[in-house]
Amino acid sequence: MSFNESLGLALLNRKALFERLHEEGTTAYRLFHGISEGRPGLAIDRYGSTVLIQTFREPLDADELGAIEARLRADLKFEFSLAYHPRGEKPAALRTPDPGETLCQEFGLKFLFRAHHSGMDPWLFLDLRAGRRFLRQKVAGKTVLNLFSYTCSIGLTAAAARASEVLNVDFSKTNLEIGRKNAQLNSVPETIFHTLEEDCLPVMRQLAGLEAGGRKNKRLKYKKLNRRQFDCVILDPPAWSKGSFGAVDVEGDYPSLFKPAVLATKPGGWVMATHHVPTVDFDSWVETLKKCAAKAGRPIQSVQRISPEEDFPSFDGNPPLKIAVCEV
Fold first, then answer.
1. DSSP secondary-structure letter at 116?
2. How far apart, in whole angstroms, are the C-alpha atoms of residue 240 and residue 253?
3. In 3D, which of 54, 56, 36, 57 has the Cα closest to residue 44?
């Protein structure tokens, strides 16, 4: 099957899904998931009036990009601007004009979107929609701690679903500012939606009642916080990052993140934990979480797996994004 045929089939297979999402007020979803649909290293997403093409390996040339655009314009039933973002190791000379800042929607909520900006990742992670859908049904009247919040999409979803309080924590001022703008766009009260610009490691450790940064980091400056527990804790770390308080390494040492998240959760509450490394097995990861929680004196009572929705098909049943809701 040619790539043009694979793209056409992917769009056809999503027709019923698109209709359901549109009825829910959602205009942000994946159009083509290359790793499972015939072109590894290529992803095509809709964000409102922008269609974003990303390559993670070989960049596209002008003819390839033109062929993709022609197919999309023939099959899609809405007007759009096209943006191409090459992210692979090899440099790409091909660039598209910046469509500028626009809006997309998810479950009727408005989210700012810009295809070309100072960072690498889109401001809204589409595969995490399944987790945000879960939250909409669970957080009314609850307090929520959103760790590694990025642009606060989960926090906004929780606040709009009538959580009593949401604390979004991220080290990036720019990301949090986007989150605050999204909250304003959706008329979310500032009394509910809070942001904290800080490294998540000392924050989560202090909330858990642990030493903020270990002996080596006693001289580092960080915001002092009292121990506190939340009804719901969102733990959505990057696969790898390194800061003043140590490294975030989800494949090598997830328990160092999960333990304080569990201790910062009220008894009977739950942690929504994510893992983004494709090669990690879900069941093995959950066993690690169970051992960690038991050792911390807060054993996991139940685990619910949440898989990405139909626009992120998996050829082996083990999608790159793994989400586990752990009741503690």
1. S
2. 10
3. 54
Count CA within 13 A, CB hemisphere, residue 134. Answer: 21
Q: How far apart are CA 101 and CA 80, in angstroms?
A: 13
pLDDT value for 247: 76
What does the pLDDT look like over 38-51, one tens digit per residue?
999 999 999 999 99
How are the residues of the chain apportioned to helix, strand and coil, as percentages rounded to the nearest 5?
30, 25, 40
Q: Where are the chain's structural domains?
A: 3-112, 126-327
181-188: long-range contacts at Cβ-Cβ below 8 A with a sequence spacing of 24 or more?
A: 181/112, 182/109, 182/110, 182/111, 182/112, 182/151, 182/152, 182/153, 182/156, 183/152, 183/156, 183/159, 185/103, 185/110, 185/111, 185/112, 186/109, 186/110, 186/156, 186/160, 188/156, 188/159, 188/160
Q: How far is the C-alpha of 193 from the C-alpha of 158, rounded, in Å?
A: 9
Please report how the helices 129-136 and 153-160 are oriented relative to each other, as an axis angle in degrees rounded to 10.
Answer: 20
**What pLDDT, in 10s, does the model give residues 101-147?**
999 999 999 999 999 998 889 999 999 999 999 999 999 999 999 99
For 155-196, write each residue's pLDDT tens digit. 999 999 999 999 999 999 999 999 999 999 999 999 999 999
Question: Domain 126-327 falls in which CATH fold?
Answer: Rossmann fold (3.40.50)
Percent of the chain topping pLDDT 90:
87
What CATH class has 3-112?
alpha beta
Q: Which amino acid is at 25?
A: G
Topology alike, domains 3-112 and 126-327: no
